[in-house]
Amino acid sequence: MALRLPLLPRWMRWTAVLVVAALIFYLSLLTVPPAEPVLEPPPLLPLDKWRHFLAYAAFGLSLAYATAEWQTDAKLLALGVIGTTVLYGFGIEVGQAFLPERYFGLGDAWANALGGLLVVPWYLLRPYVTFSPAVTWLRDLAPGA
Question: Which of 6, 83, 84, 115 lies in disulfide reach of 57, CB 3.0 to 4.6 Å?
Answer without folding.
Answer: 115
